[in-house]
Amino acid sequence: MSAPATFLDKLFDQGLLYDSGVDGLYGRSAVFEDVISRFEQLALNLGKDEISEAMVFPPGMPVPDFKTSGYMKNFPQLAGTVHSFCGNDHDHMGLIQCMAAGEDWTANQKITDIALTPAACYPLYPILARRGKLPEEGAYVALQSYCFRHEPSKEPTRMQMFRQREYVRVGTQEQTIAFRETWKQRGVEIMELLQLPHEVDVANDPFFGRAGRMMGVSQREQELKFEMLVPVNDGAGPTACMSFNYHMDNFGKAWGITLADGTPAHTACVGFGLERLALALFRHHGLDTAQWPEGVRKALWG
């Protein structure tokens, strides 16, 4: 007796996602992309009167900024860097021979000056730092970027390459905490509009190693990170589809972002996992968007 079709199988069968042969690396259909586009517009409308500017970043960022972020130190298991062939003509012939023989051909692949972006907000901080001291009102930026995390999985929500839509608040402690609390409430409102089961819970990032586990405990105790959880995957716990993060002045210090008085800026962000939210909608409302509840269609398509 064959195993029942998984949610991922159904997405492939319906042509909403396309299997590349690598877990977590999928093509997206026009229907899938349309749902993401509609959700992004919904999220943007909620904050359009508050943002100071909007930016879209490529999936790569400079290695020096990647190092400054601390991501490689804290999450080496998830990080990705871009490598390219750096050999000569003789090395090229060896590469071709190794590939033809099915042997390792990567000996002359060397790291470039680009790392794969792990979080949409990271490329923003060095830009703000180069501008000098922040104005009294700080900065309030809408971002979007493809991101990479090396965690191959059969769970459709755990893609290795995915998009984040973020709002980032940079300013005083009071400004950034107030921003996060506002968006926690807005996140609940969005889930109610989309008629998705949800809960908000304190969370921690997947820090690596023994010291990392202690950092995770500290992050939870200080309630620096909250997640919007929605059940999506087969037989698994709920998936984080949004996150609400307060970084204190860590990034301000790391990149040298300062307030008008010269002290390090505080930062906070709200992140929307665009593919995850689309998957949650397909999971709970069905694979045919024309059959989704009228209220959900109105929220997304107007």
Furnish the topology, listing elements before pairings.
Elements: H1 7-14, E1 17-19, E2 26-28, H2 30-47, E3 53-57, E4 60-62, H3 63-69, H4 71-74, E5 81-85, H5 89-101, E6 109-116, H6 124-130, E7 139-148, E8 161-171, H7 173-193, E9 199-202, H8 209-221, E10 225-230, E11 239-246, H9 250-255, E12 266-273, H10 274-285, H11 294-301
Parallel strand pairs: 3-7
Antiparallel strand pairs: 1-2, 4-6, 5-6, 7-8, 8-12, 9-10, 10-11, 11-12
Helix pairs in contact: 2-10
In short:
This protein has helices at 7-14, 30-47, 63-69, 71-74, 89-101, 124-130, 173-193, 209-221, 250-255, 274-285, 294-301; strands at residues 17-19, 26-28, 53-57, 60-62, 81-85, 109-116, 139-148, 161-171, 199-202, 225-230, 239-246, 266-273. It is of the alpha+beta class and 302 residues long.
Structure explained in plain terms:
Helix 2 (30-47) packs across helix 10 (274-285). The chain is 39% helix and 25% strand. It folds into two domains: 7-80 and 118-301, BirA Bifunctional Protein, domain 2 (2-Layer Sandwich); 83-116, no CATH class. Strand 10 (225-230) and strand 11 form a beta hairpin. A seven-stranded mixed β-sheet has the order 3-7-8-12-11-10-9. The chain has a three-stranded antiparallel β-sheet with strand order 4-6-5. Strands 1-2 form a two-stranded antiparallel ribbon. The protein contains eleven helices and twelve strands. The protein is of the alpha+beta class and 302 residues long.
